[in-house]
Specification:
By secondary structure, the protein is an alpha/beta fold. Helix content is about 35%, strand content about 15%. The protein has a single domain, classed as Rossmann fold, CATH 3.40.50.1000. The protein is built from seven helices and seven strands.
Length: about 200
């Protein structure tokens, strides 16, 4: 597993809720193995939603599978360039990630960090603490939903990115699990999770 930006939170001030956000298809438009910073484009409403969540006290933590690195479709310097550009774009919109963790491995490498395995959460937990009972994972794949439930957090599948492809699979997962939601995009996901029966700011 790898860290773009470590998250730090002071547990002495109380546990905070967190939004664990997939990157491609949730925060930025999914370009399929993005390696060019010029192609970074925010999903409409994503920055505004991140800003609103931060204002309510949520930690914003990125968790992303970046198998393009393991597949050698782009390089670490190219990945770093994309992340630097994303940070710039988010900052221009008054927001940003508190931490960002990613898996650089290809699917067949049997690593501990590729979602839905919990390695990225474990890495983040070394320097950052969050209230699981008030926290969520938002992503566009069934693996994001599975990660959330493995981490004892709520899950929202968004239809942006690859979400529509996974919707039927996730609906089957929802049949016996009330802590999985589906929404059109990150803005709708945040509105839905705030209505859900979990602890969180403003309740």
């Amino acid at each position: 597993m790898a860290v773009w930006k470590p998250c730090h939170s002071d547990e002495s001030t109380g546990l905070r809720p967190a939004l664990f956000l997939d990157r491609d298809g949730v925060v930025i438009v999914d370009r399929d193995y993005l390696g060019d910073p010029a192609d970074v484009a925010l999903v409409p409403g994503a920055a505004e939603t991140m800003r609103a969540a931060a204002a309510l006290g949520y930690l914003l933590i990125g968790v992303s599978n970046q198998s393009g690195l393991g597949r050698k479709l782009f390089t670490i310097p190219e990945f770093n360039g994309v992340m630097k550009r994303l940070d710039e774009v988010l900052a221009e919109n008054g927001t940003g990630f508190d931490g960002f963790y990613y898996c650089p491995h290809a699917p067949g490498e049997n690593c501990a960090c590729r979602k839905p395995k919990t390695g990225l959460l474990d890495e983040a937990a070394e320097t950052c603490a969050w209230d699981k009972g008030a926290s969520w994972v938002v992503g566009d794949k069934a693996s994001d939903v599975a990660l959330a439930r493995a981490g004892d957090m709520g899950a929202v599948l968004v239809r942006t990115g690859h979400g529509a492809t996974y919707e039927q699979e996730v609906r089957l997962m929802m049949e016996n699990d009330s802590e999985i939601l589906i929404a059109d995009d990150l803005a709708a996901a945040f509105a839905a999770l705030r209505r859900a029966d979990r602890r969180g700011p403003g309740r």
